[in-house]
Amino acid sequence: ARIAAVVVAAGSGIRAGGDKPKQFRTIGGETVLRRTLSALLDVAAIDVIQPVIRLEDTSLFKAATEALPPAKFNAPVGGGATRQESVRAGLEALASQAPDVVLIHDAARPFASRALIERAIAAAEKTGAAIPGLAVTDTIKSVDSHSLVGETLDRSSLRAIQTPQAFAFAPLLEAHRRAHREGRNDFTDDAALAEWVGMQVVVFDGEAGNIKITHPEDFMRAESMQAAQLS
Ligand code: CTP
Ligand code: MG
């Protein structure tokens, strides 16, 4: 099967702060984006990688990808105002190549292991829609607008969802096109779109180390994680 990966790197990284978007800042001297792309390049089954960036970040992108083997890369395309729009731009850019399976991965998750990425591919080839999840360890409660507790949710049935999320390409592209046509731009991940069009989505084991760089302190955690990888 032909396997593609869309890497969404078109966010502004507001919460993480800093002088440039978090995907262009470094961990252990290497940019977050370069680490993320290298993890995908390490997976032989992936045929093509489609980066999505803000076009104003083109020179940052070039610097971050310098000397990476170009064979598997499509030229970056511009993203949109929301993550959902950025994913759609990446899928549209891949449409002419018509891959069988597509992984959607956050540039902000530089620690996805090869084993995790391979699990995603295998699960999607079997089921058509598969996402990594972790059991939640905190107790989760719903609250109302006054911070009053509504209920305590059954933790055993909850999962915290990561990327890479993996899908049969054609139905995911169709789901994105339909959401766009219908003006729905409030889906926070691709699985939510797949669920919306009635695809069955399965959860496979995620990884605790597959953190999303979100807040400033995540860079400190990432630095110590990468130092531990070296030792
Ligand atoms: N993303 C994107 N296009 C957007 C928004 C987000 O490609 N319009 C990407 C980000 O670059 C990131 C991933 O989606 O790799 C997950 O989003 P998030 O962690 O929210 O990153 P940002 O939106 O950049 O950060 P923030 O919400 O703090 O501004
Ligand atoms: Mg965001």
From TrEMBL:
Cofactor: a divalent metal cation
Site (Positions MEP for the nucleophilic attack): R155, K212
Location of region: 2-C-methyl-D-erythritol 4-phosphate cytidylyltransferase: 1-231
EC number: 2.7.7.60, 4.6.1.12
Pathway stated in the Swiss-Prot or TrEMBL entry: Isoprenoid biosynthesis; isopentenyl diphosphate biosynthesis via DXP pathway; isopentenyl diphosphate from 1-deoxy-D-xylulose 5-phosphate: step 2/6; Isoprenoid biosynthesis; isopentenyl diphosphate biosynthesis via DXP pathway; isopentenyl diphosphate from 1-deoxy-D-xylulose 5-phosphate: step 4/6
Catalytic activity reported: 4-CDP-2-C-methyl-D-erythritol 2-phosphate = 2-C-methyl-D-erythritol 2,4-cyclic diphosphate + CMP; 2-C-methyl-D-erythritol 4-phosphate + CTP + H(+) = 4-CDP-2-C-methyl-D-erythritol + diphosphate
A GO biological process held by the record: terpenoid biosynthetic process
GO molecular function, one term: 2-C-methyl-D-erythritol 2,4-cyclodiphosphate synthase activity
Marked site positions, Transition state stabilizer: R15, K22
Keyword Nucleotidyltransferase attached: yes
Keywords: Isoprene biosynthesis, Lyase, Metal-binding, Multifunctional enzyme, Nucleotidyltransferase, Transferase
Protein function: Bifunctional enzyme that catalyzes the formation of 4-diphosphocytidyl-2-C-methyl-D-erythritol from CTP and 2-C-methyl-D-erythritol 4-phosphate (MEP) (IspD), and catalyzes the conversion of 4-diphosphocytidyl-2-C-methyl-D-erythritol 2-phosphate (CDP-ME2P) to 2-C-methyl-D-erythritol 2,4-cyclodiphosphate (ME-CPP) with a corresponding release of cytidine 5-monophosphate (CMP) (IspF).
Family: In the C-terminal section; belongs to the IspF family. Belongs to the IspF family.
Protein name, UniProt field: Bifunctional enzyme IspD/IspF
The species this protein was found in: Pseudolabrys taiwanensis
Location of this fragment in the whole protein: 2 to 232 of 392
